[in-house]
Amino acid sequence: MAENITEENLLEFPCDFPIKVMGETSDAFAATMVEVIKAIDPTFDATKVDMRASTGSRFISLTCTVHATSRAQLDDIYRALTSHPLSKYVL
Question: What domains sit in the chain, N to C, each tagged with a CATH number?
Answer without folding.
Answer: 13-90 (3.30.70.260)
